[in-house]
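User: Predict the complex with magnesium ion.
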Amino acid sequence: MLTKPKGTYDVIESEALKLQKINHLIEIYCTVYNYDFIRTPIFEAKELFHRAVGDETDIVTKETYDFKDRSDRELTLRPEGTAGVVRSFIENKLYGTNLPRKFYYTGTMYRYERPGNGRNREFTQFGVEILGSNDSMTDAEIISMPYNLFQELGFKDLNVKINNLGSKEDRENYKKALKEYLSPHICELCEDCQRRYETNPLRILDCKVDQDTDILKNVPNILNYQSEESTTRFNKVKEYLEFLDVDYEVDSKLVRGLDYYDYTVFEIVLDTEILGGASTIAAGGRYNNLVESLGGPATPCIGFACGLERIMLAMDEIEETSKRPLDCYILYVNEEEKLKALTLAQDLRISGVSVDYDTTGRSLKSQFKEADRNLAQLLIILNSEDLKKGLIQVKDNITKEEIKIDENEIIDYIVCHG
Ligand code: ATP
Ligand code: MG
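Assistant: Here is the predicted structure with magnesium ion placed in the model:
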């Protein structure tokens, strides 16, 4: 038997219902927050991710799916969404239109990781990006939007962690101090961190292995290495978040896994055992240099991405996902009634009523059972005798009341009562 590749999964049954519910809410949120939908390719030039995400990040060094196509082009399955959005922004010269541009996407991402709870090789991210504004108001919007959305989904124990990485220059100053502090302890760090010490020392703060050592507990605080401009900016972000009632906590060790972040970075963590070590459901930050470094004009940007599988897992704790009820089920027996069922269903569906009927030759009795299984609210029970008189029998499947309606008024009746 053929089976799915390791780290992938099928979205079926209750998982499908959960995903639909989340996607529906995402559509509503992105509409009211005025984000435009964007779709970019699932594979891009390998170089894009090396340059955007960073050569020294775990994502690029260990996790990408790289391949050559039949013409020997070096391609990569996207491990995240921002690089593609920024590439598209530059390639389509969207910076020439009115700024800022606000985009949202949902789509599958690919990372060669060890699969486990909330960690897959193919997973789905919802993300938004604001390109072309450096106002702290956008930082507050980008953090509060997923916070509000998660609350609406029913999550209560949300932990918003924010930090300020400052400008490139602030980070250089901090990196110097961090390296000075770490230099007597290098051999006590894990192998990865020993390499990061040279290539990307900030990432040491994020190390899952060394996290609890005294060395990491006592590192210099990045917030003490910020310029006045950066600190003022961060204070504004915090002030706005307070006005928006976002319950946040400053975590000066939060750095995020990707290279392109500066100034504000944040994570939303869900406090639940179900997610084990993978409890971050959304993460993002400001990236004011990325557009320029990929060949576009200097454009300040901010965004976040959120992992839908982790949200789906956590939803099990707050509700039982139930099947969506059907407005109407049509029952019939003979060929004449069947033809009526077919046309009536089409007319009702076009009018926005959800309708179904049997297509497997079931007896009338088991059609009633099918209607119940589909949670049908109304039943249309077709009968040749009635049809001859221009009448159609409708039964309310909840109150069990029955009524005969004039054939010409059936659509209006069902639309009003369905
Ligand atoms: P982690 O520290 O958990 O590995 P990350 O820093 O690699 O996360 P990001 O690149 O910031 O994650 O991605 C944003 C979000 O996408 C994460 O917070 C998470 O919800 C989700 N995500 C990331 N990797 C995976 C994965 N392999 N499987 C499922 N969801 C994922
Ligand atoms: Mg990761």
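The first strand starts at residue 36 and ends at 37.
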